[in-house]
Every structure is written in C-alpha cells, then in structure tokens.
Amino acid sequence: MYKALLIIFLPLFVAKLSHAQNWTDAEFRKANTAANASYLTDEEKNIVMYMNLIRIDGEKFYYTFLEDYINNYNAKVRKYRNYNELKITRTNPYYISLLKHMRGIKNLQMFYPDEKLTLVSRSHAQDLNRNNLGSHESSNGDTFAKRLSKYFPNKAMSENIDFGYSNSLDIVCHLLLDCGVPALGHRFNLLDQKYKLNTVGVSIQKHPSYTWCAVIDFVAQPLFYTNNQ
C-alpha cells in the first residue's frame, strides 16, 4: 500500500495529536525552522518540523508522535482483510530496533530548509508524477547525485522518497520506521550525525500509481543562521 525509496550515503495541527502536550513551546519553536519558508506548503513545513523534533529528543518522539502515527495507521488499515499483516505491532522488529537507535538522540543539529534545494526536490517529485516513476533516477536518466551536484557540488548529500502519504507526520514516521528496508537508509538519514546533513529540500506531489509522493533531499553545508527561518 505504501512504499518508500532510499539512497545510502508552530505547526497547524499538532494540538490535535494526543501526545503534543508532552512537548514544550520552546521545543516546537526550535524545530520549526521552516516557519517562514514561503516556498513550502504547510505540510512541507511540518515535515521539516517533525524531522527536527526527532533530532531534539528521539526517545520522546518515539513515545509520543510515533505512537500517534501507529495508532492512526492501525485504525485506517483495520478495514482490510489482511489487517493482521498490515498492522504495526509492538513486536514488529523495525519498531523494536528503532527504540535502540532513538535512545541517545538528543539536541542534534537542526535541519534548515533551502529554496534552491526545494526546487530540485520539487522538480524530481513532479517528474515522478508526470512519468509515473518510482525511482531516484529521473526520466532523463539523471541520478539523484547528479541532480543535486549541479547546485551543491562537492557536498555530502542524500535523498529519501516516500510514496502513499500526503500528511507530514505520516511521511516522517513511515520513513523513520523503515519497515521492510533492511539497510534502514531512510531512518539513518533522519538521524544522521556522520555526514553532518543539515540542509533540506522538501516537496509533496501527486502520483498516478501511489496517489502521493514526497521527495526529501539532504545536503551538508556551512550554515550561517542565527534565527529560525
């Protein structure tokens, strides 16, 4: 039903979620680096915010927003005959391994949105939609690295692509759990410390086969921000 691709290398609706009260206003403000990014939609801004909340306190995110996602997801798929196969249980090995990876994640470098990088992400998401593709490779054969290197040469970079969701929390938690992806590449991009990824481009677009696709590009570069953007 949902698919994700990986490459190795103050929100509008948070108050509706049952565990939002476990986070402080200061934490939301710190995470909301995309607040004034006019080139992003509200859901795209919230993708950045949720990724940053993970990096502020991984274990707290695990027991709050991830729990909300799992509960909502299980409620949605209950109508299907293969519900027992689709549901996410507390014994799911990806759920269990995630806690191990989230413990110790505390006050990491925030992700900051970048308009130029977002244009690259949006172009690829639109290409996936237009040509009904499900790949990091563009319809003209360009790899993800080639696309990003045109604008960010000689930088560490990575890319996550998610299919099936248009809601920001769903997108982030789906990538974070990384069910069915043994290498856990999506997860490790979100929790990155090794490559110092700190700049992101985000785009959510429609898709003919999966209804929605979301492209998130990551680049490591010097930052000169003193305030949330």
UniProtKB/TrEMBL annotation:
Q: Sorted alphabetically, which keywords does the UniProt record give?
A: Signal
Q: Name one Pfam family in it.
A: CAP
The molecule here is called CAP domain-containing protein
The leader peptide range reads 1-20
Tell me yes or no: is Protein biosynthesis among this UniProt entry's keywords: no
Entry keyword annotation includes Signal: yes
Q: Where is the SCP domain?
A: 101-210
Q: Which CDD domains match?
A: CAP_bacterial
The species is: Pedobacter frigidisoli
